[in-house]
Amino acid sequence: MDISQRLSFFAALYRVDENPELGMWMLYLTITLLSILVYKLGFAKTLPIGKSVLIYLFLILGCTVLTALGVFLPMAEGLVVAALILIIYKMRLRLHKKQEMDAG
C-alpha cells in the first residue's frame, strides 16, 4: 500500500512522506498558526498577560498531538474551515453593528 495516497492535503503538500523532518515541522507550524487564528477569532478575551501566556503555551503543546493526527486526518483542513466560518461571522457581525449604528 502506498502511504502517499493516505496523507491529508497539507501533509501531502508538505511532502511528509519524502522529507519527514521538514514536512512535519511545516505541518506543525501550519496547525499551530491556524489554531491560534481560530482561538483569536472565536474564543479569545482580554486576559492578564500571565494567563494569556499559559493559554498559548498549552495551545502550542496541544498542537503537537494535532500534528501527529494531522498526517492522515484532516486536522489542518478542519482548522481552515473553522477559521473561514469565524471570519465570515465576524465580518457579518461588524456589518450588522455598523448598520445598527447608522440606523440609531
Keywords:
4 helices, 104 residues, mainly alpha, transmembrane, 76% helix, Membrane protein
Structural notes for this entry:
- The protein has one domain (3-103).
- 76% of the residues lie in helices and 0% in strands.
- It has 4 helices and no strands.
- The protein has helices spanning 9-13, 20-42, 49-70, 75-103.
- α2 (20-42) crosses α3 (49-70) and α2 (20-42) packs parallel to α4.
- It is elongated.
- The model has no long low-confidence stretch (mean pLDDT 94).
Give me a quick take on this structure.
This protein is 76% helix and 0% strand.
Distance between the termini: 64 Å
Radius of gyration: 18 Å
Helix-strand sequence: HHHH
Q: Main β-sheet, in a few words?
A: none
Estimated structural class? mainly alpha
Low-pLDDT windows of residues: none
Strand content: under 5%
Proportion in helices: over 70%
Report the strand count: 0
- How many helices? 4
Shape: elongated
Keywords: Membrane, Transmembrane, Transmembrane helix
InterPro entries: YlaH
Protein name: Membrane protein
Pfam families: YlaH (PF14036)
